[in-house]
From TrEMBL:
<dbReference type="GO" id="GO:0005737">
    <property type="term" value="C:cytoplasm"/>
</dbReference>
<dbReference type="GO" id="GO:0004029">
    <property type="term" value="F:aldehyde dehydrogenase (NAD+) activity"/>
</dbReference>
<dbReference type="InterPro" id="IPR036291">
    <property type="entry name" value="NAD(P)-bd_dom_sf"/>
</dbReference>
<feature type="domain" description="NAD-dependent epimerase/dehydratase">
    <location>
        <begin position="4"/>
        <end position="225"/>
    </location>
</feature>
<protein>
    <submittedName>
        <fullName>Epimerase</fullName>
    </submittedName>
</protein>
<dbReference type="InterPro" id="IPR001509">
    <property type="entry name" value="Epimerase_deHydtase"/>
</dbReference>
<dbReference type="Pfam" id="PF01370">
    <property type="entry name" value="Epimerase"/>
</dbReference>
<dbReference type="InterPro" id="IPR051783">
    <property type="entry name" value="NAD(P)-dependent_oxidoreduct"/>
</dbReference>
Length: 323
């Protein structure tokens, strides 16, 4: 099989490429000229250097491809360039869909997010859930929601595109929670916030497997939530502590966290700086809760992920082995 992967140098896409190559598939990957390609070290992927919104370059790269995996995204919370995020997440998806259909790509798998469902206020939902939140918690949620609408429209018009909707993606080289785990294992993480915050968890390699299964078995227009389960932040650190022997960090009082977020937010905007806490990040910690049921992917795709406990435990060994 010949596959085309957008955002090839990214966390999720690089693991997908390795899974494809392990199967013997030929992979073409899209990256920017300025991209850090260290995650692809040892891979045999044929790289194409172009902007995600360059339809002509995409059409050339996709010619003769059996399946497109659209994984590229601008993922960030807090103080972001909302216009650039919309360009990458929405217009980039539009360009990928346009190019894939123009050259007759048989199948496409789109990597979405459970964030498109909006805040469920802790209610456990599945793929049939209709969004009730009227606004958006972040530019990321809004742009991924808008991109999902484009994908759904393409499917309605007959294009074979399937959506996978991962929850929190974890792995030793995770660019978001990974640095936190590194600091924790070194004994430098003394404080944390939001112990009751619930996070859906999926190992990055299990997400890669789910994308392969979606390409093989997914029905046109279908959505598949990709989550092995969830865990509170307090439970995560307790498990990390048990596995590593490093004491769990103390929890900062909510009032202090909210105060610091309110103070740092305008400072960050003034100096174009991404503070560790901002109003949006605080909102995600205390006020927003999306809980999902990933059983459809297990039932219909035959997806069998590792448990959330094993995923968290592997962060300890994986992070230590990487150093």
């Amino acid at each position: 099989m010949k596959a085309f992967v957008t955002g090839a140098n990214g966390f999720s896409a690089s693991h997908l490429i390795k899974a494809l190559e392990q199967r013997g598939d030929f992979v073409v990957g899209l990256v920017r000229q300025s991209s850090d390609r260290s995650r692809l070290e040892g891979c045999h992927v044929e790289l194409v250097y172009a902007d995600l919104c360059d339809v002509e370059a995409l059409k050339t790269a996709m010619t003769g491809v059996d399946v497109v995996f659209h994984v590229a995204a601008y993922v960030e919370l807090g103080l972001v360039n909302a216009a650039e995020m919309a360009r990458v997440n929405v217009e980039g998806t539009r360009a990928v869909l346009t190019a894939a259909q123009a050259v007759g790509v048989p199948k496409m798998v789109y990597c979405s997010t459970i964030g498109i469902f909006g805040d469920t206020q802790g209610r456990v939902i599945d793929e049939t859930f209709e969004r009730t939140q009227k606004d958006f918690s972040s530019a990321y949620d809004r742009t991924k929601y808008d991109a999902q609408q484009l994908v759904d429209q393409a499917a309605d018009q007959g294009f074979h595109v399937v959506s996978v909707l991962p929850s929190g993606i974890f792995g030793a080289d995770d660019p978001h929670f990974g640095p936190v785990v590194k600091q924790f294992l070194k004994g430098r993480l003394k404080l944390w916030a939001g112990g009751d915050r619930v996070t859906g968890i999926v190992h990055v390699d299990d997400l890669a497997t789910a994308m392969l299964l979606a390409a093989e078995k997914g029905r046109r227009g279908d959505r598949y939530i990709i989550s092995a389960g969830d865990m509170t932040t307090r439970e995560m650190f307790a498990l990390l502590s048990k596995e590593s022997g490093v004491p769990a960090p103390a929890e900062t009082p909510e009032a202090v966290v909210r105060l610091v977020g309110n103070l740092l937010d305008p400072i960050g905007r003034l100096f174009s700086w991404q503070p560790p806490l901002s109003r949006e990040r605080v909102h995600y910690v205390y006020d927003r809760c999306v809980r999902v049921d990933g059983s459809k992917a297990r039932r219909e795709l035959g997806w069998a992920p590792r448990s959330v406990e094993k995923t968290i435990r592997e962060l300890v060994t994986g992070t230590r082995n990487a150093e």
